Amino acid sequence: MKIGVVRFPGTNCDRDVYKWLQDQGHQPQFYWHEDLFSSQEVEALVLPGGFSFGDYLRSGAVAARSPIMNSVKEVANQGKPVLGICNGFQILCEAGLLPGALIPNSGGEFIDDWAELKSPSTKQLIQLPIAHGDGRYFIHEEDRKKLWDQNQVWWQYTQMLNGSVDQIAGVTNLSGNVRGLMPHPERAYQDWMGGIDGWKFWI
Amino acid sequence: MKTWFIRILPRAEVLDVQGRTVLQMLNHNQLPFSNVRVGKLIELTADQEISNPEAVLKKALALGLYNPLVEVAVIE
User: Fold this and answer.
1) pLDDT string in tens for chain B (76-residue length)
2) What is the pLDDT of residues A143-173, one digit of tens each?
3) Is there a contact between B37 and B72 (Cβ–Cβ < 8 Å)?
4) A2-193 — its CATH code?
5) Is the pLDDT of residue A192 over 90?
6) Shortest CA distance from A61: residue in chain B
7) pLDDT tens, residue by residue, A83-103
8) What is the pLDDT of residues A53-76, one digit of tens each?
């Protein structure tokens, strides 16, 4: 599968995501934030983690208004899979492609650890690394209900780690092709990494 | 040349971690405040005349200077 990997100034998980995709048999291709590309060039997209534009204004806020986001939205609107990991998740929320916002952790500290996640739909339990300061998922009460009614909660933490509403770690858009999560599957797909739950995690 | 300020604060229903930390520090130093919200002030300057500054500032806000989901913005 041809998968675009979108880079912004401050992205730092791009090489990890590239290797993760390559090792799973995909053909990753980097794109820069100033690029505009045809949606026909890719079958899917990943927005990796990092600290795009130094988290200025808010995490993901400046990146969400970059020229390349026009192409990202075009790909998303065609129903192709789009995944945002960590800062990529923050960017997709800021761009309005996913509901809610990611704000500073309730404990006020950067968390670097492993987290257990539960899928609300399948009840599957997995373990993935997390590394974030702004990982507290926030959504207003009326939209929180919609999120559950429309099966848009993708993953939940099994323990309260960062103050996220309903311990939400990842969500999807209404049609399910755009997904975002704070944990890092690309950091857990080989035994030596400490876990393999990130293997074939997405597509 | 004209300058405007936009004051941005976290919404009341959003736990403001920075504000809580600053409040603790102030209280630890015997200052009797009961609430602190930490936000940001954005200064915008235009060298050229803007005929409808309020509309232009609102456009800047809508472009992403604040996130209405978690923040409130006031043009000063």
Assistant:
1) 999 999 999 999 999 998 998 999 899 889 999 999 999 999 999 999 999 999 999 999 999 999 999 999 999 9
2) 999 999 999 999 999 999 999 999 999 999 9
3) no
4) 3.40.50.880
5) yes
6) B64
7) 999 999 999 999 999 999 999
8) 999 999 999 999 999 999 999 999
Judge whether residue A37 has pLDDT over 90. yes
CB contact under 8 A, B70 and A138: yes
pLDDT reading at A14 higher than 90: yes
Provide the 10 A C-beta neighbour count for residue A46.
Answer: 26
- The position carrying tokens 């670097």 is A112
**Subunit contact A108:B18, Cβ cutoff 8 A:** yes
Number of residues that make up chain B? 76
Choose among A132, A179, A129: nearest CA to A151.
Answer: A179
CA atoms within 13 A on the CB side of A73: 13
Q: In terms of DSSP bridges, do strands A168-172 and A153-157 run parallel, antiparallel, or are they unpaired?
A: antiparallel
Partner A contacted by B24 (CB < 8 A):
no
Q: Does A107 touch chain B (CB under 8 A)?
A: yes
Token pair for residue A52?
């795009």
CB < 8 Å to B65, chain A: 57
**Domain B2-75 CATH (choose: 3.90.650.10, 3.30.1280.10, 3.40.47.10, 3.40.718.10):** 3.30.1280.10
- Taking CB atoms and an 8 Å limit, are A61 and B69 in contact across chains? no
Hey, which residues of A are catalytic here? 86, 184, 186
Please tell me the distance from the alpha carbon of residue A131 to that of residue A174, in angstroms, as a whole number.
Answer: 27
